[in-house]
Amino acid sequence: MDLVLIDALEVDTVIGVYDWERTITQTLRLDLELGTDIRPAAAGDDIAQTLDYAAISKRIAGFAGEHQFALVETFAERLAETLRAEFAIAWLRLTVRKPGAVAAASAVGVAIARGSRPGDA
Ligand SMILES: Nc1nc2c(c(=O)[nH]1)N=C([C@H](O)[C@@H](O)CO)CN2
């Protein structure tokens, strides 16, 4: 399986479990691995035959602006569902980091993988 990559995508959203977090916008940093077969796009040199990382990045920014979750877990799960529903993504790994949430850490967050890799049972 081939991958289309989006690294360190920063999006602004309202997120957090504390009351003060409901009043501000915070930045999340996302890494995505999007499973697909890039050979048809490469053969035809055709953007329509692959996952358009620009379109997906724009959709993620829109998703972040549309939703207000408490947990990064919920953000990750709902975003993965949305992307898999709207784009031809066979499998994805999504990492959501919340920089600055824990002062002693450069970032905290979650990583999930959803969908089926070719060859999986
Ligand atoms: N596993 C999680 N732990 C925590 C989360 C979270 O989303 N997932 N969130 C918070 C607070 O919102 C924190 O980020 C504020 O600094 C605490 N723990």
The helix fraction, in percent, is: 25-40%
Under CATH, the topology is which? GTP Cyclohydrolase I, domain 2
| Global shape | elongated
Q: What is the number of E strands?
A: 5
Helix/strand structural class: alpha+beta
What is the succession of H and E elements?
Answer: EEHHEHEE
Radius of gyration, in Å, reads 15 Å
Q: Quick check: average pLDDT?
A: 96
Describe the main β-sheet briefly: 5 strands, mixed
CATH architect. name = 2-Layer Sandwich
Domain Dihydroneopterin aldolase/epimerase: 4-114
Organism: Halomonas urmiana
Family: Belongs to the DHNA family.
Function: Catalyzes the conversion of 7,8-dihydroneopterin to 6-hydroxymethyl-7,8-dihydropterin.
What's a concise summary of this model?
The protein has 121 residues and is an alpha+beta fold.
Overview features:
binds the ligand Nc1nc2c(c(=O)[nH]1)N=C([C@H](O)[C@@H](O)CO)CN2; 121 residues; 5-stranded mixed beta sheet; GTP Cyclohydrolase I, domain 2; elongated; alpha+beta
Verbal overview:
With 121 residues, the chain is of the alpha+beta class. It has one domain: GTP Cyclohydrolase I, domain 2 (2-Layer Sandwich). Helices cover 29% and strands 36% of the residues. It has three helices and five strands; from the N terminus they run ββααβαββ. A five-stranded mixed β-sheet has the order 3-1-2-4-5. The two termini are 15 Å apart. The structure holds the ligand Nc1nc2c(c(=O)[nH]1)N=C([C@H](O)[C@@H](O)CO)CN2. Keywords: Folate biosynthesis, Isomerase, Lyase. Catalyzes the conversion of 7,8-dihydroneopterin to 6-hydroxymethyl-7,8-dihydropterin. It catalyses: 7,8-dihydroneopterin = 7,8-dihydromonapterin; 7,8-dihydroneopterin = 6-hydroxymethyl-7,8-dihydropterin + glycolaldehyde. This is 7,8-dihydroneopterin aldolase. GO terms for molecular function: dihydroneopterin aldolase activity; isomerase activity.
